[in-house]
Design a protein that fits this description.
single chain
């Protein structure tokens, strides 16, 4: 009988983390080695009670101390650590077989790379770590033997439509891939109304239940811009081999166009448990708990060309992947800071892309030949973005 696989969930209290644990809960094939979270002590305590991980990591000392007291009071033996080096420790631990990398943003880079360098099976939901480190990330996976299974619904769809040996055969077989985009909550909102949109409106996605940062990214279509970069590195494609189509129904998650004229697409209800279950069971299959797709009950499926004037963040994504080097890291850093400012209501929704474009124009591109260069560029871009917001927008 096969022993259960041991899993570490980085970002267990976020949307992807919660869905991962929901899928695991229905299976006897997994045990939870470690969980990590930012500051949601209440939910982490509940997760520790249910899954009995050996280790729980919180982002700061206050949250870690509060959780430790809570678990001790409830008689839960989970050891509590503060993030610092503990995130990399649990991501690379010998006691872990699979790592779900679901920390949002650049904060997920170091632990995700630690998992990759340790040769784990990495379920990659943290697209920003790959956007930032690109070629270095993929080379680390090749060197260590790590298996990268993308969890973003679009990249997971492409992954499912490719042959298992696609690293060697993709250039000879595939003409292009098409990433579908829902269009977010403002697909049909006139651009001249963007200045009055609120964070709550931007976070009210019509199809997906996500965290606030990624919901704003979907609303600006920067999420798709970042996904173009992710796809380029994951699948070894040039920018001109990646297209985006707006598909408001979010039923077809992506398509692969083969050179013989065939087009393979992956379809499912818009439910993150589907790609999560695929990643957990890969290369096998397991129940996800998601409702089975019934096409007879679906409205007509629409496909639209994206409006790059209305959603310039998508154009910025294409430009960054074409330029390469440190530009994707600059794009990601500026976007994170601009979105944070919008969520604080320091800037308007329609100012997000112009702020990012200004940062991209001011920081010269260089070769992303080391993690130190990438992290230095990230810090420079964040600092400049904050200065611009204070100087020109507040």
């Amino acid at each position: 009988m096969t022993s259960p696989q041991r899993i570490t969930v980085l970002g267990s209290t976020g949307s992807v983390g919660r869905n991962t644990l929901a899928v695991i809960e229905e299976s006897s094939n997994f045990t939870v080695h470690a969980l990590s979270a930012n500051s949601n002590v209440d939910l982490m305590a509940q997760q520790c009670q249910r899954f009995q991980p050996e280790i729980a990591v919180m982002a700061d000392a206050h949250s870690a101390s509060k959780l430790a007291v809570r678990l001790a009071t409830e008689g839960i033996p989970t050891r509590v650590l503060e993030a610092a080096d503990a995130l990399e420790q649990i991501a690379s631990a010998a006691d872990t077989d699979v790592v779900m990398a679901a920390i949002v943003g650049a904060a997920g880079l170091d632990p995700t790379l630690a998992a990759v360098n340790s040769g784990k099976r990495v379920l990659l939901a943290n697209k920003e770590s790959l956007v930032m480190s690109g070629a270095l990330f993929m080379e680390a996976a090749r060197r260590s033997g790590a298996v990268i299974v993308p969890i973003d619904s679009e990249h997971n769809a492409v992954f499912q439509c490719l042959p298992q040996d696609f690293d060697a055969t993709l250039p000879q077989q595939v003409e292009k891939i098409v990433l579908t985009a829902s269009g977010g909550p403002f697909l049909h909102t006139p651009a001249d109304q963007f200045g009055a949109l609120t964070p709550d409106q931007a976070c009210a996605h019509p199809k997906w239940k996500m965290g606030r940062k990624i919901s704003v990214d979907s609303a600006t279509m920067m999420n798709k811009g970042l996904e173009i970069i992710e796809a380029s590195y994951l699948f070894g494609l040039n920018a001109d081999q990646i297209e985006v189509l707006v598909h408001p129904q979010s039923i077809i998650h992506s398509m692969v166009y083969y050179r013989d004229g065939s087009v393979l697409a992956q379809l499912a209800n818009p439910d993150m448990r589907v790609p999560i279950a695929h990643g957990l069971a890969y290369p096998e299959r397991m129940p996800s708990g998601a409702a089975t797709l019934d096409l007879s009950q679906q409205p007509a499926l629409e496909f639209l060309q994206p409006d790059l004037d209305k959603f310039p963040c998508l154009r910025l994504g294409f430009e960054a992947v074409t330029t390469g080097g440190t530009m994707p890291a600059v794009l990601n850093a500026a976007n994170e800071e601009a979105v944070a400012a919008f969520l604080r209501e320091d800037i308007r929704f329609d100012q997000i892309p112009s702020i990012i474009a200004k940062v991209l124009a001011k920081i010269p591109c260089e070769a992303a030949t080391s993690l130190a260069i990438i992290q230095s560029t990230d810090r420079e871009a964040r600092s400049l973005c904050k200065e611009l917001i204070i100087k020109d927008f507040i």
